[in-house]
């Protein structure tokens, strides 16, 4: 018998010979990384939970061809690196929960291969940089959570033009302004900002005007 404390490594193709597998739940173990092809491209996998482990690395191709995958949870790990090649052909993925990890960067075109993504939760992270086109091609995105990170600048080039989103949470970061070109890209229903940030007064007026014209609700 393998206890939770004993589990540190998953071998590639660890779930072979399980063609009808729907859920993988590996929580609160000593698992440290996720290798390429660990799920063996099993098309039936719908839910994957790997929270509260010690994962600091996801190899490119780790979740390739999981065509039925809808939710992946990797919160409360030590994840320092991942990129879009981790999720090749996960065309039905709707929710990513990477809360409470260690990466400082949202990579270039991080979610480009995930057209149905609805929820991205990256709260309690250590993000300082959102790279070019990081949040492109996400027409169904309704929630983007960046609560409690280390952002000082939010680069407009990370986001597409005419982006519609229900809820944007950027509380507990460190920017003192939001660029006009950033605001013009967005149509939101709710946005959470932080009243303790050193906001510049002219920026607050622009945010006020933008909220008025987009009919958005501000949580401050």
List keywords for this structure.
single chain, 220 residues, mainly beta, Leucine-rich repeat, LRR (right-handed beta-alpha superhelix), 2 domains, 9-stranded parallel sheet, two-stranded parallel sheet, 2 helices, 9% helix, elongated, membrane, Leu-rich_rpt_typical-subtyp, AMIGO
Describe the structure.
The protein is mostly beta strands and 220 residues long. It is built from 2 helices and 13 strands, in the order E-E-E-E-E-E-E-E-E-E-E-H-E-H-E. The chain has 2 domains: 1-81, Leucine-rich repeat, LRR (right-handed beta-alpha superhelix) (Alpha-Beta Horseshoe); 104-220, Alpha-Beta Horseshoe (Leucine-rich repeat, LRR (right-handed beta-alpha superhelix)). The radius of gyration is 18 Å and the shape is elongated. The mean pLDDT is 87.
């Amino acid at each position: 018998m393998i206890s939770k404390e004993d589990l540190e490594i998953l071998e590639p193709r660890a779930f072979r010979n399980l063609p009808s597998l729907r859920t993988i739940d590996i929580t609160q173990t000593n698992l440290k990384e996720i290798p390429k092809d660990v799920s063996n491209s099993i098309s039936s996998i719908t839910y994957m939970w790997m929270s509260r482990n010690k994962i600091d690395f996801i190899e490119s191709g780790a979740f390739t061809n999981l065509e039925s995958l809808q939710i992946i949870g990797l919160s409360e790990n030590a994840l320092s690196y991942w990129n879009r090649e981790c999720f090749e052909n996960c065309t039905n993925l709707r929710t990513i929960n990477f809360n409470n990890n260690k990466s400082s960067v949202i990579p270039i075109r991080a979610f480009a291969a995930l057209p149905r993504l609805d929820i991205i939760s990256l709260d309690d992270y250590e993000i300082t940089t959102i790279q070019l086109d990081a949040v492109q091609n996400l027409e169904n995105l309704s929630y983007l959570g960046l609560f409690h990170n280390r952002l000082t600048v939010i680069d407009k080039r990370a986001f597409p033009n005419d982006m519609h989103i229900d809820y944007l949470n950027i509380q507990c970061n460190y920017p003192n302004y939001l660029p006009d070109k950033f605001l013009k890209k967005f149509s939101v229903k709710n946005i959470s900002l932080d009243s303790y940030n050193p906001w510049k007064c002219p920026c607050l007026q622009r945010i006020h005007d933008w909220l008025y014209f987009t009919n958005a609700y501000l949580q401050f």
